[in-house]
Amino acid sequence: MHWRVRVALCLLLCVGAGPLASAAPSPSMTLHLDESTVPLNGPWRFHTGDDLRWAAPDFDDGAWEVVDLTPEPGAHDGDVGLPGYVAGWSQRGHAGYSGYAWYRMVVAVDAGQDIALALAGPTYVDSTYDVYVDGKLLGGPGVFTGPTPTAHSVRPTVFPLPAAASAGARRHVIAFRVWMDAGDAGDDGGGIHIAPTMGTATGIDALHRVQWLRTFNGYVVDLVEPIAFVLLAVLVFALMACRTGQAYHWLAIALLALALLRINQVLYAWTDLQSLRGYDIAVNVVLKPLALAAWTLAWRDWFGLRHPRLAWAVGLLAGLYLVLALVGRPWFMPGAAAGVRVAANGAVEVLRLAFVVLYLWIVAQGVLRRAAPSAVTSALAALLVGVGLFATELNKLGIPGIWFPYGVGVSRGQYAYAAFVVLLFGLVLGRWVVAARARRAGHPVQVGMR
Percent helix, strand and coil across the chain, each rounded to 5? Predict the structure, then answer.
């Protein structure tokens, strides 16, 4: 391949103690490569806590833990299929810890002065990082200026390395300052999950393009499906404009709510428009209860069920869900007792189960009463969108939630939504045709909705 520039690199990955001015410590790993890039799997020195003095090239890190980021063959993350995934610090003796931690490594490169080197940042980190080389901040996706860092999506990033000052081996001290938000804490969370990569500027640039292609492929479906939902909402509005006298507004609202819920994945993964906490509020606090409420009422109207008090019950459930979801976020009211958050999250699970029961009851009533034309087909559409809405409950039943065709993660919900879009388009178009024919014939429009 054109980007595999043949350069003899000898990387001495050193984790010994002592300043650079002293005798070089014994290398822990020696790599003789004939390629233009190499992952810095380690070993790394690792320490929880935070002190900017740890970025200094002469800092003695000899008492720190040793961490190896070498992945198992074929390992990848469980979301979009990024290769090279390893477990976080929760699996390495720091379960339950969230906050700051540092990784340090000394790298010696046997390369000429005229060869430009670069570092490709890690593509999966809980939750954000800054990288220092030889004590100088090169950057990172996080904003560390406030009392609590602001985390943005960790996307593929390239950091050019300083040029060699003299002939001979080039040595750099690489230090990553990592911060994990409490919202990312979990059994496998914490720190760097995919090692950074070092190499020639040309090789790293090519790797950067490959990494971005993987990131794009991993979330492109989350862009296409919201567009389809919006187009369906426009079609529903057009159907309302046909003067059917039927209540389609909740269906349009539900489609738009689902589009917003899905597009947040793209906004967070591809841009800096949303922080991690902004995404958490939008998706887990606001849009999930809104989508559940809107779809419950949309199917009530679709099947023509006359239950006026149902709207009040759904509104109450959604309001409680929103409030309790906010209370249950680990970053909200940090001084509150942990038991309060546990109780709030437990109540949210109960509310979601209440939505499941109500949702399925409405679908069953629609089929049993045949309250709408094509009631069975409509029920199938409702179940398909329910696969995405109630993903958490399906996961607890042990139903696989994601597959990796061609190495790219595609979720159960994405498959279900794709089938749902086609099915609902046919159903809405069918009602549109029925309404148009009824108007031309001068008959009252009866298409099954209240």
Answer: 45, 15, 35
Each residue's pLDDT tens digit, 76-119: 999 999 999 999 999 999 999 999 999 999 998 876 667 889 99
Q: How many CB atoms lie within 10 A of CB 126?
A: 27
pLDDT band at 169 (very low <50, low <70, confident <90, very high): low
pLDDT tens, residue by residue, 188-247:
999 999 999 999 899 999 999 999 999 999 999 999 999 999 999 998 887 766 555 566
Is residue 262 within 8 Å of 229, Cβ to Cβ? yes
One DSSP character per residue, 143-165 reads B-SSSSPBP------EEEPPPPS
Helix or strand run (H / E) with residue 119: strand 117-120
Look up residue 53 and give its two tokens.
Answer: 């003095």
Q: Rounded CA gap, 269 and 215, in Å?
A: 8
Could you tell me if 141 and 157 are in contact, meaning their C-beta atoms sit under 8 angstroms apart?
yes
Query: What are the residues whose beta carbons fall under 8 Å from the beta carbon of 120, sequence distance 6 or more?
Result: 37, 156, 157, 158, 159, 196, 197, 198, 199, 204, 207, 208, 211
Per-residue burial over 412-425, b = 16 or more CB atoms within 10 Å of its CB, e = otherwise: bbbbbbbebbebbe
Q: Give one DSSP letter per residue of 179-240, joined into a string.
A: EE-GGG-STT-SEESS--EEEEHHHHHHHHHHHHHHHHHHHSHHHHHHHHHHHHHHHHHHHH
With a threshold of 0.85, does the pTM exceed it?
yes
Query: How many helical (H) and strand (E) elements, i.e. helices and strands, does the chain have?
Result: 10, 16
Q: Which of 312, 345, 351, 304 is nearest to 327 (CA)?
A: 345
Encode pLDDT of 337-366 as tens digits: 889 999 999 999 999 999 999 999 999 998
Phi, psi torsion values for 176, nearest 5 degrees: -110, 125
SS3 48: strand
3-state secondary structure of 173: strand
Number of Cβ atoms within 10 Å of the Cβ of 218: 20
**What's residue 305's pLDDT?**
84
Q: If we measure between CA atoms, which residue out of 281, 285, 293, 12 comes closest to residue 168?
A: 12
pLDDT given at position 3: 32
State how far the Cα of 235 lies from the Cα of 32, in Å rounded to an integer: 61
**419 with 387: CB under 8 angstroms?**
no
| Collapsed DSSP state (helix, strand, coil) of residue 421 | helix
Tokens of 359: 């949702």
